[in-house]
Specification:
Radius of gyration: 28 Å
Distance between the termini: 82 Å
Strand content: under 5%
Structural class: mainly alpha
Largest sheet: none
């Protein structure tokens, strides 16, 4: 039969160190997620405000499609 490794409860210092590492990882993930949200928002705004080539006011675009 396979013996499970014996574990012991963490000390207060070990628990504090574990929680500090988790907080650090959570902050990094929050920054990455926030950056992606801002990036997607900016891309969406650019796509919404950008005029398609066939709606351009330039005479060259009108000649190219006529």
């Amino acid at each position: 039969m396979t013996d499970l490794p014996r574990t012991r409860p963490l000390t207060a210092d070990e628990t504090d160190a574990l929680r500090a590492r988790q907080r650090g990882r959570n902050r990094v993930m929050a920054l990455i997620l926030g950056f992606l949200v801002i990036l997607f928002f900016a891309i969406s705004i650019v796509k919404i405000t950008e005029k398609p080539p066939h709606m351009s006011d330039s005479p060259d675009a009108a000649e190219a499609h006529s």
